[in-house]
Amino acid sequence: MNSRILNNIKKDFLIEIRNRSAVNISFAFAGITTLSVSLAAGGAPFTPVVHAIIFWIILFFSAMSGLAHIFIREEEEKNSLFLSLYYSPEEIYLSKLIFNIILFLSISVIVTALYLFFLQVFPVYPLLFILTVISGCFAIASITTILGAIVSKAGSGSSLFTVISFPILLPVLWTAIRLTSVSIDGSGVQEYRNIVFLLAFSGVIISVSYLTFKFIWTEF
Predict the structure, then answer these.
(1) Which domain holds residue 109?
(2) Which of 23, 42, 52, 81 could form a disulfide with 177 if both were Cys (CB 3.0 to 4.6 A apart)?
């Protein structure tokens, strides 16, 4: 990997460790929401579909609160000009993408652990469940990275981010919810081809984003 990309990723992580805004918001949202659902349920069992829907709603809004700021922060702190002078658009995009993927996978580990613990969920197909979470988070991070760049250049802040993200993420969420339900219930077939769909969807988004990011970053 290009050392300049690694340097930019390191810079983003150092800033995140110092500020911890995105991580704190995402973890707080995940913890409070999961605990609230557990207390509201009062021990009443949910169906696998309901578990899957609640789980991915928590992950979705954790992503919305945590991943949008990576480009918005650069605009607010007036660092975008420096990035444009020192890094190529491709290096900027790849570094932000890798950062978002690592950050969201870290958030998903905490969210998954909290949800399984508080709601007492035990997937019948644990491998399918793990692969679904990983591939679903990969797809969400891929989409939100390029959308974060568009929103930051439009100057709309994070308020517009959730609105434009949801319809684009619907195929990912629908597929992930279906796979999660099957992995929890164990009554369906382990459809690993849908995992391939999520990864292929991510690949298409990343390819298109990589080719168009230069115009988004320089022309807006």
Answers:
(1) 3-219
(2) 52
